[in-house]
Structure formats: structure tokens, C-alpha cells
Specification:
single chain, about 180 residues, alpha+beta, Aminopeptidase, eight-stranded mixed beta sheet, 8 strands, about 30% helix, globular, acyltransferase activity, transferring groups other than amino-acyl groups, acyltransferase
């Protein structure tokens, strides 16, 4: 993939049969109920969404980032229904790396979807995106997300102390990674 090349509008992971399509502002209604919840927003490393309009604006911005290959937010679809949303954040083609984020909607949690989604994201990063390193930052108390990453053979690299501001509080972040040439 060339630098500044648009990300694919949609892709399907053959192993999981999950479809990943670029999130559109109209998807805001699906994710706003979660993103306005203070507990969920904190786990995602953000402040609660102020309004549906704010979520739609964010998704519109993310769509623009995908058009230049800088980042991409995808709705995960299973059997025609959205089951989550994921992101390839800060795609760096020069250094062949990205950071991922992922969220499974509450009614689909506890079914192993998070593990399958992350595995599909790694395959996409290493394959179509031609990246070598995939990383994820997780809050220390988000044990479910840490379990998803370790299940997918991510290595815990360390703890960034008071690294991320959420609201008015600086929080630590645990960094995990998976490197194609080392952890495949």
C-alpha cells in the first residue's frame, strides 16, 4: 500500500466471515448510546459523547482520514447486523505500523467476537495494508480487552504512566504489540 492511498471501503475476513465497512456519519445512531455512557467512554479512552451530532462529526472526520490512508474506522458486520466498531489508528506506512482499537456492542459481548475481530484486523494489517507492527493501548482496569490481546498472542510491552488524559484525569496505558516478523 502506498503512502496516502485510500483504505478499502469494505473488506471481508474469510476466516471469520465478518465484514468490515468504513463507518459513515449515519452509523452514529448505532454507537452513540455506548459512547455517551461514561463507563464505556472511559474504557475507550475518550470523554462521553455530548450528542449524536458529535458522534456523526467524529465519524465524518474518520472517513476523511481513511480517504488519505492515515486511519480508518470500520463497522463490523455479522449476518447483516453491526456487532462492533474498530479502528486502524495512526497508520504509518513508512515505519509499517498501526495502532488498533475495537469495541463490541453489548448485546454481542461474551461470544468471542472481540478475539475474532482482533485476529481479522491483524490479518488485514499484515496483508492488504502491508504493515509489520500492530499495537494497542489498554487501560489497566480493562481486563477483558487485555485478555483479547493476549489470546491473539500480543506481547505486553510496558506501561505508559499518566499517558492519556480522559476528562480531567491523566491515566496509565498498557501497551501491547504483535510484530509480523517476530510474533506470527
Amino acid at each position: 500500500m502506498d503512502i496516502f492511498q485510500a483504505l478499502p471501503a469494505q473488506w471481508q475476513d474469510e476466516s471469520t466471515r465478518l465484514v468490515f465497512r468504513l463507518a459513515q456519519p449515519s452509523d452514529g445512531a448505532t454507537f452513540y448510546p455506548q459512547w455517551k455512557d461514561p463507563v464505556v467512554a472511559r474504557q475507550l479512552g475518550m470523554v462521553p459523547a455530548a450528542s449524536l451530532s458529535a458522534v456523526q462529526t467524529k465519524l465524518g472526520y474518520d472517513l476523511g482520514q481513511a480517504q488519505i490512508g492515515a486511519a480508518g474506522r470500520y463497522v463490523v458486520v455479522k449476518s447483516g447486523r453491526p456487532v462492533g466498531i474498530v479502528g486502524f489508528n495512526d497508520i504509518d506506512q513508512t515505519d509499517a505500523r498501526t495502532e488498533i482499537g475495537y469495541e463490541v456492542l453489548p448485546e454481542f459481548q461474551g461470544q468471542g467476537l472481540g478475539q475474532r475481530i482482533v485476529a481479522a484486523m491483524v490479518r488485514q494489517a499484515w496483508g492488504a495494508l502491508s504493515l509489520n507492527r500492530v499495537s494497542a493501548g489498554v487501560l489497566p482496569d480493562n481486563l477483558a480487552s487485555q485478555k483479547v490481546l493476549t489470546h491473539n498472542h500480543f506481547i505486553q510491552e510496558g506501561r505508559l504512566r499518566q499517558f492519556q488524559r480522559i476528562g480531567d484525569q491523566l491515566t496509565d496505558l498498557i501497551v501491547f504489540s504483535k510484530v509480523k516478523n517476530l510474533d506470527a
